[in-house]
Sequence to fold (532 residues):
Amino acid sequence: MFKKTPIAAVAAVSLLLIAGGCAATNTGKSVAPQATAPAAAPAAAPAAPAVVAKKVDYTAMSPAELAEYLIFEAEGYDLKQPTQEGTTGRARLVQDEIQKACSLGKGKEIDDKSREKIMALAASTIKYPEGGIKLGDWKKGRELAWSGYGYRTAHNPDNHAKGTPGGNCYNCHQIATDRTGGDIGPSLTGFGKIRGMDPDTLKYAYDVIYNPHVYFACTNMPRMGASGVLSQAQIADILAYLFDPNSPVNK
Amino acid sequence: MFNKTLHVLPVVLAVVASSNAGSGQLPEEVLDGLIKKTNNSVYLTQSPQNIMMLPDNPAWLVAEAGEALFKQARGPKNASLEQCDFGKGPGVLDGAHAELPRYFADTGKVMDLETRLLHCMKTLQGFTNDDAAIKQKHGSKSDIMKLQTYIASKSSGIPWNPPMQHPLEKAMRDAGEVMFYRRSGTMDFSCATCHTQTGKRIRASVLPSVYDAADMTKAISWPSQRTSHDEVRSSQHRVLECLWQMRYPNIKNGSDASIALISFWTDAARGEPAILPDLKR
Fold:
């Protein structure tokens, strides 16, 4: 059962990657791979076979395989940590199709075929309010746009009973001129005043907030509607903040 | 060189300087050099107040406490840490942190400063995971942060040079690179979302770009006083903070996942001098 040669260890690695979840006993305790002489196994084997399992050979994996191994098998993260949406840490780390396709390394861009696929996939996720897209309350929208609360977990989980998750828009956008925003995304200052308020423009902004990959495949902007962070009503409030002539964005 | 007039915290600096003779450069001198070299990088110059405070960095007091702890016989085995091998031989601290993470044959693992320190506290001093000396990993009052700050200060001014000779070192760095670009979580973030463009901001904070070694050397120079926390923080803690923003679950302190990320980011600062201890927002 126990693999002792380096070659067998490599085979075991791929098995673990496929089987998943059973490698927990391999981490931490083991010694240098070269140092684990076969003779060491029988002594401990009868009592606690799991502890004797060989050290996984990281150098036999591709960088991508090793990354997945470190995340999911080597207990790098608290995979059981509860999330606000009722899932676990593991679910936060598993990639969906768009995340996978958009994890592009240095200097890499998606090819045209993937781009089209992503845009179509994004379009299929967008749901519209019954009765069409209307502006909500810009004051509520302002609160949401300027809030980074929600869904943070790690060492200090947000408590959604105590605060409403926000849109994080300010982190990446300059929005109104009264407060300082980030510049990972373009400035949205004067958005409604500059773009106008025709139905196509409203739909464009709604779509971008809901799932921006429909226009910008592999954008850095999160999918605030598709991920369930913002409701349709909350998006309507943020739209009011962007478009309402009385909103500070357009002053 | 520590040949400048030590006009601030003279006592503390004298202690540090005397045991550090011949190696390193004061953090403020290193930063000054980098600012000149980059023609005022937006990231490096973002806080004139922090630049001004750097010579009076409260982290020096933490380093001083760390030096005493380092030399003191402690733990069940009543030993000091003076025989701990941080990669350049037992007891050699000068420039050691600038060459971490690295592979250690005695554990068969790639270790960063914190994991190596914990290893020595266990093997040389006999501490176990249940001892307060090891359990408490964060904050200026913790032994771990005092010791790390002292050891790291011995690499100030030394160019980052994490070895890539051993296949495991390369494997960990490369896996860290994959993790850096890997998107997931509620908001689709990867490290690359925020750290691949020079001079961009998340709200008011200027972000270091991983493609810019001169920015990266400051970004990865930990331990660093975190002025907004009023504590000295570690590399491990910085990873945690960004993962929190990213909506990721908790990462385990010293896990291979954390060390892979740290290996990658240290490699990104290769060749640029460390600023240790640093002082950040």
The mean pLDDT of chain A is 85. Residues 126 and 210 of chain A are 6 Å apart (CA to CA). The two ends of chain A are 72 Å apart (CA to CA). Chain A touches chain B through 62 residues (CB under 8 Å).
